[in-house]
Amino acid sequence: MEYSPTISVITPSLNAGQTIDETLWSAKAQEVTPTEHLLIDAGSCDGTLGIAEKHAHLTVVSEPDQGIYDGMNKGARAASGEWLLFLQGDDWLPEGALAAYRTAILMHPDAEIFCGDAEAVKVSESGRSLVWAVRDSESKKLTFQNIALGEPMINARLIRRDVFLGLGGFSLDYTLASDREFLLRAVTAGIRQVELPVLTYRYRWHSGSSTMTEGNSLTARLSEENLSIARKYLAQTQGDEVLIFKKWHSRLLLQMAMNALESPGMKGLLTAAREGIEVDQLWPFRFIAEILRSLPGFLMRRGRTRSHILERGNQSD
Fold first, then answer.
1. Cα dist from 205 to 60, 148, 152, 212, 313, whole Å
2. Is 60 left (phi over 0), alpha (psi -120 to 50) or beta?
3. Domains in the chain, start-ordered, CATH in brackets?
4. What's the CA gap between 208 and 187, in Å, rounded?
5. Separation between Cα atoms, residue 178 and residue 172, nearest integer Å
6. What is the pLDDT of residues 290-299, one digit of tens each?
């Protein structure tokens, strides 16, 4: 009998009623078997579960949890598939994504992670507009540089279930950055990844997103969590890898300082500057360069923060 890889799609949700139906259909339309889809709900009260009931193929678990990463860990433990794909409740699987993964599994039996292309889009009344995309093979490789300085793209990665569980799953020490921290652990462990030249994930960029946080209310928390991870890796790495984490650390502090400039009283600016200078004596000059680089965009936005721009995501441009 021909081997047929089994894939489990795991969708964590909490009050995702506005987007969950489109998300679920994007997985159902793949028509690749054997596939199971688990909806791990944290106790939605906005109609999410009512929408889920219309999808007979779903396995639904609804109970309180400790956040999105706890939900994804629960889904991984409950999954019966050999492979795990995490699909957020406001995103989509492009047509053919699961078929591409299935073919890749058969072609690369030693792989432990597959990574496809990803793109983020903003939806408005006039349609969908591309915000960013990662398509080149080098940018998708599982390296410290790509994970620390690029897009982690956890959702564009198909992960062997035993590898995910063997690495301990997502840490609950982080509420927004645990996917990046998990992938850094995967790099450290030497996990084997194969890159695919196929679009396998679409992120929905919007003002309330927990994964696309630039300019929204979660920006500061994500920066703090990433900074905590950067500090840890700065302390435990050696050689050329230290330079990667120094650059990430400096970049995070620049981001925090720029955010402080847009906040009342510029709270946190002095703290960011002090830590930046401790690790990088050139940090003040990098900060000035960042201000100059960002000034044209700030003027184009007429003094509005990025969050004001993102809030237009459901309006006509």
1. 26, 21, 15, 6, 8
2. beta
3. 7-204 (3.90.550.10), 219-314 (no CATH)
4. 30
5. 7
6. 888 888 876 7
